[in-house]
């Protein structure tokens, strides 16, 4: 009986620890998105690129970019377009083992013209930090 109570208490503690760890992880993923948007609006390309793993892949309408340095150069090109008022909203987030799949929408302005599109991202823990391992970004069709 005592052994059963001790085992039950241990399992409850493990479950609680998992919930706390999951909350911390969820916070990391939310912070990753928030910090990326803030860096984008500051035009801080190095901080934006740091959100990606060293061997990340980024697929955009302008091409596929492999590795953090190639992604950094692509992000510099994007910043040079003078997009502003960038924001992102995560609509879907699913955890699969060590991976988190996110999907959502982004918005920005080019001059006075609003633009928006969609994204998917696979996020992993890299050195204790949440980082983007793969990202696909699209631009919504006109009128959408």
From TrEMBL:
<keyword id="KW-0732">Signal</keyword>
<protein>
    <submittedName>
        <fullName>Nuclear transport factor 2 family protein</fullName>
    </submittedName>
</protein>
<dbReference type="InterPro" id="IPR037401">
    <property type="entry name" value="SnoaL-like"/>
</dbReference>
<dbReference type="InterPro" id="IPR032710">
    <property type="entry name" value="NTF2-like_dom_sf"/>
</dbReference>
<dbReference type="Pfam" id="PF12680">
    <property type="entry name" value="SnoaL_2"/>
</dbReference>
<feature type="domain" description="SnoaL-like">
    <location>
        <begin position="35"/>
        <end position="122"/>
    </location>
</feature>
<feature type="signal peptide">
    <location>
        <begin position="1"/>
        <end position="21"/>
    </location>
</feature>
């Amino acid at each position: 009986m005592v052994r059963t109570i001790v085992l039950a208490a241990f399992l409850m503690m493990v479950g609680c620890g998992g919930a706390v760890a999951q909350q911390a992880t969820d916070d990391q993923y939310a912070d990753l998105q928030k910090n990326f948007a803030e860096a984008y609006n500051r035009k801080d390309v190095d901080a934006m690129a740091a959100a990606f793993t060293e061997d990340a892949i980024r697929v955009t309408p302008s091409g596929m970019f492999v590795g953090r340095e190639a992604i950094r150069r692509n992000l510099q090109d994007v910043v040079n377009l003078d997009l502003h008022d960038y924001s992102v909203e995560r609509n879907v987030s699913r955890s699969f083992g060590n991976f988190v799949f996110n999907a959502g929408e982004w918005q920005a302005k080019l001059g006075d013209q609003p633009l928006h599109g969609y994204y998917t991202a696979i996020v992993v823990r890299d050195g204790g930090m949440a980082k983007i391992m793969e990202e696909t970004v699209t631009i919504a069709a006109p009128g959408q």
